[in-house]
Amino acid sequence: MPLSILGPMVVIGIAGIAILLHLLGLSRTVTLADNTAARAAWDEEFGNEDPARAVTLAHDGHAALIETAMGRPGIVFAMGADTAARYLDGARVTPIADGLRIDLPDFTAPHIKLHLDAGEAARWPDLIGDNA
Amino acid sequence: MTDQITYPDVVNYAVPLFIAAILVELVWIFVKRRGGRYETRDALTSLLMGAGNVASGVLLGFVAWGVYVWLWDYRLFDLGTGWIVVLACFILDDLRYYWYHRIAHRARWVWAEHVNHHSSQHYNLTTALRQSWTGTFTGMWLLRAPLVLVGFHPAMVLFVGGLNLIYQFWIHTEAIGRMPRWFEAVMNTPSHHRVHHGRNARYLDANYAGVLIVWDRMFGTFVPELDSEKPDYGLVHNLGTFNPLRVAFHEWLAMFRDMARPGLTLRQRLAYAVAPPGWSHDGSRAMTGEIKARHLARHPEDTGTPGFDRN
Questions:
Q1: Extents of the domains making up chain B
Q2: Which of A3, A27, A85 sits opposite B40 (nearest CB)?
Q3: Where are its TM segments located (chain A) (predicted)?
C-alpha cells in the first residue's frame, strides 16, 4: 500500500479512535474507593516482598501514600483506569497550583501530579519525607 | 540476487481491517457492558506504538531484508512458490515465532524490545498493535535465516510472517470467551493468549505460540486459562507513564544502566543482558521461578495445578 494512503489512514484512524473513546467517557481516571482499595493496589505490585502497613488516601481517591511493612514510603497513583505504584526513594516534592508534583528518578514514572486540597498539600510533604 | 518474486505487504493492507475491528469491539463492549475494557490514553499509546512499529519497519526493514537476500544466494535448495511450499513455510515460520517469543521472555536483551507489548494493563484489540520499535536491534530476525538457507524465498518468508502477525491480532480480546474445543486444541486463541498476557504468578512465561498452540503443548509451556483465575494484565511492576518514547525504550535504558553499575564482573554485566528478566547480581530481584515459589509459599493449595506443575 502506498505511503500516501497508509499514512493518512493511520493518522485519521488513531485520532478518530482516540476522540471516540474520549466522547464515550472512557478517559475517566480511576478512583480508589477506600484505604482497602489503595492497600490492594500496592500489594498487587509489592505485596509479596513488602506489603502496605499504613495508607493515607487523597480526598479525590486518585492517589494514596503508603507506608510499607519495611517502613519505606511509597505511593499508589492513578494510571488512567488503573493504578501504578512506586517507592518514593529519591523523590523531590514541589508545590503546584492544585497540589503537589513528585519527581522520581524513575524513567517509567518520572513525574506524578497529585491533586490535593490545601490541608493535604501542606501535610503530604512531611509524610513523604526528604528522600531526594 | 533474488528472483522477481513478490507478495503483497499484507500487514499494511490489514490496517483498515484493524481499525474496523477495533471499532466493532469497542461498540460491542459499550453496548453489552462486558467483554473487555478501553481507556483513552492506554489505547492511544498502543496505537502510537503500532504506528511507530510500522515506521521502524519502513526505516530499518532493509537491514534484515538485505541479509536475507544475501543468504538466498547460498540456499541449499530452491523450493519454488507452490501453495504446499507456502504452507510449509508458514508452519515452520510459526515454529520460528514460538522460539523467538520464548527467547523474548527469557533473555533480557530481547525482552527489552518485547516488554512494551505487555505494558498495557488492558487487553483489547489495540493491545495487539502495541508493538516494538526496536526489534531490529536485537538481531532476532536472524532466526529466519535457516528458512531462507533451506530454500524458502525471502519474500515468501516475510509474507508468511505478516500473515502470522495478522492472525495474532484478533486473539487480543476479552470479547471472545472460548472457541470450539478442536480449535482450542490446535490453534492459538483469545483464551490461550489472555494467559500469556497475565501477570498472575500462575500465568507467567506461558503460551508463547503465534498461530499454532501445539508448539506450547509440545515444548511444555502450555497453561490453560482457568475460569477460577482471571488474568490480571500488564507487567509484574506496571509502568507509570503513557509516553510512547518511555514505553519503547525504558527497558533498554534500565538494562544498560544495570550493565554499567560499578563493581560488577564482566560475567555479571553480560548476565544483565542475557539472563531472564528479574535476574540481578545480588539476588535482590525476582525471576519467574521465584515469583511462582513465593506464590506457592502463600498458597500451597495451588501446588500441582496449571502453571505450578512444572519444575
A1: 10-178
A2: A27
A3: 6-26
